Amino acid sequence: CCCLKRRPRSCSKAIAQSIMKKTIWYIHGASSTPRAFNWLHMQLPDYHRVDISYADHEVEAVLPRLEEQLRFAPNPINIIGHSLGGVLGVALAQRSKRVNKVFTLSAPFGGSEIASYLRWISLDPLLTAIHPRSRLIKSVLNTPLKTPVTSIVTASSRFPLSIVFPKNDGVVTQTSQTALFGPDYHELPLN
Question: What is the per-residue pLDDT across 96-115, written as a single tens digit (0 to 9) for each?
């Protein structure tokens, strides 16, 4: 289900299911969809799945909506977030006691230096939201973690940007993925 696009009352089925099972909110990365988690969800059949969708242009507005939705969760939730979804998951956990654990994959906690330059060329709000000095990134870096966070750090030097930028996964540098103090980091040689 995707409760962000529904009124809380119409989420009663999802809420009823989450009472019976532990719940995982899956938050996808920028320019992706919840389908990115299909394989992972099949590996975790004992958990109730809640797909969180958002459009790239509304990154700044998604956190207040997630906080509101979290108020209706009957039990504390777990979050799995990929890339920007990992940053959003940690930001939500920093703002709410209703998050039990966060698991991130390739999350750019330090933002994207490329976005710093591209935001002057493009008016895309996503670039404004993910550059290293954005409100979202600064908030995540400057707010202490209250929730356990496990973060998979991916890096592969096979991508052409590795000539110009430090070790990266093709988009996000390893430095950005490890910029947040506190998570339990695990590096994998993937992109």
Answer: 999 999 999 999 999 988 77
Helical segments of the chain, H only: 12-20, 38-43, 59-70, 84-95, 113-118, 125-130, 135-142, 174-177
Instruction: Report the alpha-carbon distance of residue 152 to residue 186 in Å, rounded.
Output: 5
Q: Give the angle 166-119-32 at the CA atoms, nearest 5°.
A: 75
pTM for this model (two decimals):
0.83
CA atoms of 89 and 140, how far apart (whole Å): 10
Q: How confident is the model at residue 165 (pLDDT cuts 50, 70, 90)?
A: low
How would you classify residue 182: left for phi > 0, otherwise alpha for psi between -120 and 50, otherwise beta? left
**What count of Cα atoms within 13 Å lies in the side-chain half-sphere of residue 188?**
9
